[in-house]
């Protein structure tokens, strides 16, 4: 239902600057926290940190899409965070989304006891994310952002996989 309401219906929230928030909530907070609760049978506030990390990266993929389409979305009347912020601030927002994901991981690992060294394998992705952020920042022709969306999505998936493996090894 949430995916359908993003662009369909009488009041699609993707057209009202709520897309980023909904992606963060559904793919990050709800997806990760619900899975954590189902698997463990308990709720712990620390689950919000990895959930936020995943949510920030999911929003980063959407943000690249919205950055690429900033002009056509404005013409079509689609209101996005990118359209509101403008090109330069949207690029800064993108970098903040990626950095926020890593901050959440560091906070989580700092608050978790008996963290094995394998939990830090997620850091393998950091230089690749930084390289992508640099490419986003330097891109002048917005249509060239299209080539960065797939690497952003795949790198986000790798981040989640490595982070999950590290957590699984926590036991």
Task: For this entry, give a set of tags.
single chain; 171 residues; mainly alpha; 8 helices; 71% helix; globular
Structure description:
By secondary structure, the protein is an all-alpha fold. The protein is built from eight helices and no strands. Helix 3 runs antiparallel to helix 8. The N and C termini lie far apart (34 Å). The model has no long low-confidence stretch (mean pLDDT 91).
Short account of what is shown:
The chain is 71% helix and 0% strand. It is built from eight helices and no strands.
- Structural class by secondary-structure content: mainly alpha
Put simply, the count of helices is 8
N- to C-terminal distance: 34 Å
**Strand content bin:** under 5%
Q: Count the beta strands.
A: 0
Radius of gyration, taken over Cα atoms and rounded to an integer in Å = 17 Å
Topology:
Elements: H1 2-7, H2 19-40, H3 48-68, H4 70-76, H5 81-85, H6 87-111, H7 126-138, H8 146-168
